[in-house]
Amino acid sequence: MMIASWVESANLAEGGFPLNNLPLGVCSAKDGPRRCCVALGDQVILMDVLDSAGLLPDAAKGLFTAGTWNAVIARGDGLWNQVRERLIALFRTEGLPDLREDTRLRAEALVPMADIALHMPFDVVEYTDFYAGRHHASNVGTMFRGPENALPPNWLHMPIGYNGRASSVVVSGRGVRRPWGQLKGKDQDAPIFAPSRRFDFELEMGAIVGPPSDGPVTVAEADDMIFGYVLLNDWSARDIQAWEYVPLGPFQAKATATTISPWIVTKAALEPFRCDAPARELPLLPHLRDVGPANYDIALEVALAPEGGAETTISRSNARELYYSPAQQLAHHTTCGCPMRSGDLLGSGTISGAERDSRGSLLELSWGGETPVELPGGGTRTFLEDGDTLTLRGYAQGDGYRIGFGDCAGQVLPALDDPYKRN
Amino acid sequence: MMIASWVESANLAEGGFPLNNLPLGVCSAKDGPRRCCVALGDQVILMDVLDSAGLLPDAAKGLFTAGTWNAVIARGDGLWNQVRERLIALFRTEGLPDLREDTRLRAEALVPMADIALHMPFDVVEYTDFYAGRHHASNVGTMFRGPENALPPNWLHMPIGYNGRASSVVVSGRGVRRPWGQLKGKDQDAPIFAPSRRFDFELEMGAIVGPPSDGPVTVAEADDMIFGYVLLNDWSARDIQAWEYVPLGPFQAKATATTISPWIVTKAALEPFRCDAPARELPLLPHLRDVGPANYDIALEVALAPEGGAETTISRSNARELYYSPAQQLAHHTTCGCPMRSGDLLGSGTISGAERDSRGSLLELSWGGETPVELPGGGTRTFLEDGDTLTLRGYAQGDGYRIGFGDCAGQVLPALDDPYKRN
Question: Which pTM was predicted?
Answer without folding.
Answer: 0.98
